[in-house]
Amino acid sequence: xxxxxxxxxxxxxxxxxxxxxxxxxxxxxxxxxxxxxxxxxxxxxxxxxxxxxxxxxxxxxxxxxxxxxxxxxxxxxxxxxxxxxxxxxxxxxxxxxxxxxxxxxxxxxxxxxxxxxxxxxxxxxxxxxxxxxxxxxxx
Length: 139
Fold this sequence. Notes:
The chain is α+β, with helices and mostly antiparallel strands.
């Protein structure tokens, strides 16, 4: 395996047999960057597997906080400043908390289908509820 440090939204780092992405799409930065990421994935290989947490799962997987993704931005920042469960540390500094909140944006199935129109959609489920969504295409 070879590691190629690069911005996955910029591309230009070669062709591959398969692109595999696990929980990256929600961190690349807004719709335009997600579309760039998807375009690079689709241009870089004939096959791909792109997984991301599903926006409508009741517990936000990065914070492990129920309904976190549906709260207003300021409320998410305040939760981040006081909630110490999940993958993220408690960040007392408002700027650091805001930056962390802004760096994560979950997507819906409709968005995922728009980003990967040539891929099949598959839902990973927990207790019957969609937890993550995967766009996949075989060569």
